[in-house]
Amino acid sequence: MSSTASKHIFAPGGANGSSQAEQYTKGSLEISQLDSSPFKQFDMWFKHAQEANVYQPETVTLSTAELPSGRVSARMVYLKEMDDRGFVIYSNWGTSRKAKDVSSNQQAALTFWWHELERQVRVEGPCERLTSEESQPYYDTRIRGSRLGAWASQQSQVLQDRSELENQVKDVEKRFENQESIPVPEFWGGLRVKPEMVEFWQGRPSRLHDRFKYTLVGDGGEWKIERLSP
Fold first, then answer.
1. pLDDT at 159
2. What is the pTM of this model?
3. What burial letters (b/e) apply to 62-78, b meaning 16+ CB within 10 Å?
4. What are the coiled-coil residue ranges (predicted)?
5. φ, ψ of residue 51 in degrees (nearest 5)
6. Spatial CB neighbours of 66, under 8 Å, sequence gap ≥ 6
7. First-to-last CA distance in the chain?
8. What pLDDT digit, counting tens, does each position of 98-149 carry?
9. Is the peptide bond before 38 cis (omega within 30 degrees of 0)?
10. Residues near 157 by Cβ (< 8 Å), separated by ≥ 6?
11. Packing angle of the helix pair 162-175, 144-152 (nearest 10 deg)
12. CA nearest 192: which of 130, 135, 112?
């Protein structure tokens, strides 16, 4: 069989059954519209996403890479906090794949995709663990089952069957029985991605998208903004 005959092409379909890819027509982006701070710009775009009823706009792909192999892994997580220090997600940092990646390579990337607005935001930079004291306030907002689950799950480790996980949960439930205040596990907490690059992407027709890159310059917290070719 020829390579052509076995090839599967997953080109996106357009409107009304067209074989042409759907065009992005919902907006444009000029440098005059951008705030000098990528954090303020992200906050504005995130609020636009909420107002446009984007489904779970806090959903973001976290990408990490293990060294020395260079193997990259990515997963969907939730953005929980942001300030001028960076973007914070929460997870298990004892047994997970991302924990192993970060222990060997502090560099990480985040990618937001808001289909309803035809917008994308990319973030790249080193990351750092939050302390238990910093992580406790968010942990306390989680429902009890999720707090117990953080203790019980040895994330990414092999399970023989689901009953093994359920037994781990029962052990934790017994440990914290009648205890509403539960400490954050020492192996669980926040990870802050401290951006050195942030890109704002607005879809345009014919794939001639508007792209602007913020790059951190020096140690003074100044940002350089450049338009990128699509």
1. 82
2. 0.88
3. bbbbbeeeeeeeeeebe
4. 155-182
5. -65, -30
6. 73, 100, 101, 104, 105
7. 37
8. 999 999 999 999 999 999 999 999 999 999 999 999 999 999 999 999 999 9
9. no
10. 95
11. 110
12. 130
- Distance CA(178)–CA(50), nearest Å, equals 38
What is the SS3 assignment for the chain?
A: CCCCCCCCCCCCCCHHHCCCCCCCCCCCCCHHHCCCCHHHHHHHHHHHHHHCCCCCCCEEEEEEECCCCCCEEEEEEECCEEECCEEEEEEECCCCHHHHHHHHCCEEEEEEEEHHHCEEEEEEEEEEECCHHHHHHHHHHCCHHHHHHHHHCCCCCCCCCHHHHHHHHHHHHHHCCCCCCCCCCCCEEEEEECCCEEEEEECCHHHCCEEEEEEEECCCCEEEEEEECC
**CA–CA distance, 142 with 75 (Å, rounded to integer):** 21
- Classify residue 6 as left (phi > 0), alpha (psi -120 to 50) or beta: alpha
Of 153, 144, 149, the residue nearest 178 (C-alpha):
144
Tell me the angle at which helices 144-152 and 132-141 cross, rounded to the nearest 10 degrees. Answer: 130
Catalytic residues: 207
pLDDT in tens, 46-103: 999 999 999 999 999 999 999 999 999 999 999 999 999 999 999 999 889 999 999 9
